[in-house]
Amino acid sequence: MTHEESTKILDQAVSILQEHFDAVQVVVTWRNSDGGTVMRGYGNGNYYARKGAVSSWLLREDEGEAEEVAINAREEHEEDDE
Questions:
Q1: 66 contacts: CB under 8 Å, gap ≥ 6
Q2: Residue 2 pLDDT > 80, yes or no?
Q3: Same domain, 14 and 50
Q4: How does pLDDT run across 53-73, given as a tens digit for each residue?
Q5: Cα dist from 60 to 8, 42, 82, whole Å
Q6: Do 41 and 53 lie in a common domain?
Q7: Which residues on neighbouring strands pair with residue 24, listed in sequence order?
């Protein structure tokens, strides 16, 4: 996929979403022909709202991951005690 093709698709998607939401930020990845990963971020609306939403989402994801690791560690410890 070319940069122009991805821009067209992202622009259409963001336009549709923006009919219903104040701020939209889309992050996509895909494999290129060389087998590498391409990442694009595309959005519209209030920049600070978009940045804050993405930051908040990343923080929740990190916290959830840390909680999952702690739960798994406790479960492994309990199994070792049996």
A1: none
A2: yes
A3: no
A4: 999 999 998 888 777 767 767
A5: 31, 21, 33
A6: no
A7: 44
Are residues 56 and 40 both part of a single domain? no
Contact, 26 vs 43, CB < 8 A? Answer: yes
**Domain check: are 35 and 54 in the same one?**
no
First and final CA of the chain: distance in angstroms? 54
Distance of CA 80 to the CA centre of its chain: 36
Q: Which residue range(s) make up the domain with 57?
A: 46-82
The pLDDT of residue 44? 96
Q: What are the phi and psi torsion angles at 8 (to 5°)?
A: -60, -45
Global pTM value: 0.70
Our count of domains for the chain comes to 2
Count of beta carbons in the 10 Å neighbourhood of residue 28: 13
Rg (CA), the chain: 19
